[in-house]
Amino acid sequence: MNAAKRKLALLLPVMTLLATLVSACGGTNNNAGSAAEPSASPGTQGSTSAPVEGSRSVGGLQVPIVADKLEFSLWSPSGGNFRGTNFNEKLSFQQMEENTNIHINFQHSTEASAEAFSLLMSSGKLPDIIYNDLWGTDSGKYGAKGALLPLEDLIDQYAPNFKKILDGHPDIRGQITSPEGHIYYLPNLVLDSQDLTQMFPQVRSDWLEKLGLPMPQTTEDWYNMLKAFREQDPNGNGKKDEIPLVTVNLENIMMLFAPAFGVEYGFFVDNGQVKYGPNDPRFKDVVVYLNRLYKEQLLDPNYLVDTTFQTLTEKVTTDVAGAWFGWSGSYMGNFTTLMEGKHDTFKIAAAVPPKGPNGDQRHVSFRWQAGAHGLAVSSKTAHPEEVMKWLDYQYSEEGILLNNFGVEGKSYDLVNGEPVYKDEVTHPTNGLTNTQELLNHTIGGGSWATVADTRYAEQIREANGQTENPLEIYKDYIDFDAKLPPVQFTAEENEIVVPLMADIQTYVAETINAQIMGRQSFDDYNKVMKQLEQMGIGEVLKQYQAAYERFKGK
Amino acid sequence: MAVPLNAAKAKSRKLPTSRSSVSLKRMMSNRYLYLMLLPTVLYFLIFEYKPMYGAVIAFKDFNPFAGVAGSPWVGFKNFEKFFESYYFFRLLKNTFLMSFYSLLFIFPASLAFALLLNELRLKKLKSFLQTVSYLPHFISLIVICGMIIDFTKPGGIINSLLLGIGFITEPIQFLILPEWFRTIYVGSGMWQSLGWNSIIYLAALSGINPSLYEAAVVDGAGRWKQLTHITLPGILPTVLILLILNVGTLLNVGWDKIILLYNPGTYVTADVISTFVYRRGVMEADYSFSAAVGLFNSIINFTLLVLANRISRKTTESSLW
What we know:
heterodimer; A: D-Maltodextrin-Binding Protein, domain 2; D-Maltodextrin-Binding Protein, domain 2; 2 domains; 5-stranded mixed sheet; 4-stranded mixed sheet; 21 helices; 42% helix; disordered N terminus; B: mainly alpha; MetI-like fold
């Protein structure tokens, strides 16, 4: 190999390298300039306000919405429990198409990840309708950028069903309005207060019985119970393999215990003042308490690594986990079904939120009537009126039934005027869980821009052998004034909050975990607060306070 | 292979302007070769050079709905945001150390592995070992990380082994201890890439003229002397070029692997520039910020590359250009 040849042979890789180095940071602009072109229908162009011949009224909305079939594109993650590949396989959407004469082209991403959504939005090419879990906080941001269509006027004109709900529940409007006064998304709605609770403490009540312990009431009860789980071999295999308290993340553990000490892990409201938990002197008590649990191996020593629901399920179903903080369906119901016939005594009970040493007792895992998830409309859509009408249909009585129960005669029957799921749905014999089977028929009232029907959760719960509603007991511990509502920031506020919180969250996650694991001393908790002050928590809180007051003033 | 090489050669040679008519004539006579080169040149222009334009969003407040051209200029604001970050120096240090250790351990190990393979007389054994060592390269990263998590668990194979031989008395929580993170990262990286990285050396080794070895044997040189006097000098240019290229990527770490393995317990050593940008930029959809950090990374990498190349040219006469 002579020198010249060697250089030549290397020319190509060098060029490649240089090019990829620089292009690595330029890759985000693909298609950014090109305007979005939402799917237009083959037939009608523009909007027709005159009612379609032979139409009927659904709560004031005329269906079918159009005479000639229209097509809209809709982006949505398909979710982990859905076994099909396209939402049009669901009978409810087929029926909806027949009723409204609008065909939806679903674009699915398999995972409901923030990245997938982020990438969609950055492409600049948006479908007509976009689903997102975080419209509650994101819709204002994207709306201000011009990506989303302001809906408030369209709602007034074309959405009689949704408007009726807004008028009947005045709080909802504030929960979905952006700082500039626009509504950019239609949320999932829960109108019955006992359905607002989300996750809650769950305990192996058969272990309690076996060890002769009462249901825990206070943080000390919890400590004693977990200690007994660890030391008295409740699973009876002669090994000390119990992991008393399991979790997929620290946040869930914090939701369980932090309120008992008067704080939360994130932002909360204390007498009208927005506060940040780790910046509150009371937070030290939380750290001390959790450090005690960790030191005595009552809290899963592997909680930072085992962060998937799968590993948690494994610990519960191998009979080593004693307590956790989770959902009614995916945790309590799911585990109960999985252990049916495999374990003689397996039983889970809901525990009240623990009461702290100073008498603090509060349940913080609950949602607002308007969920953060729902559907938004692209600003580039060619048919704003028809899209609005289709969205309104989701909130009509007919639409709510379709979204919660599916198609009559297929997945439910009307018994005395009440929808009741068929047995094939609540007790499927095809190897699916009833949640999965239900998703073959419909979208599920809790995860769509519609109203979650309270009868839906009730019937599924009863089918899973839970006769009492575990959520009932939390009603008394919910304090709407202490939880930070879904506030939205203006662009300027966002500019301040985002960079400061990126550092603060890194610092807090790192420090609090290290203190819980005993790798860092918590004796001088003032140091943490001083550090947070230095990192600009004061400035952040100012923005939160402003956003909160704006929210309250609405 | 000879054809495009000739064409490239003709292009790369610097010709004085007075001879431009001559070179034009030469181009004409080789026009089919140039035609064959065209697709490659187009590829680079379209897919590698044109996207560089996107880097301007580092100096803008990029809004996808206004487009690159429509977004307002903000000067160095995005860079300032990054430099002002409380963790800037820690991120820089972690990023550099992670790459540096990878280079320090994996680079010589691959070379040594190639040399060892080259000394094997049994052809079958050699190809068997080669195949086995490549395999990890083809396993999906997500599977690799799943394996690492399983192996390093308190009840995993590594802890069981260490407990079994009495090296430790309590299982070590490898993945939540910051002091172990770099070891795990570099160690698993070596397992993943050792065989794959050795391929290029083996190729260079096979290019050494066998008659040199024969001559050396006649002169009475043993295996060791052959290694130090023929093999190593023979592949030195390749080694140096690869080293230069590696130095040029010192600030690029395999962030996806880190994302899959790190947690707040190990941020101290595991949080690198790209993971921070991921948490801060992509999750918050702040593309301008991400682009600014990417550009900063590229500039540092490019500078390192040029420096390493210059040093190499001065000291060994092997260089990229």
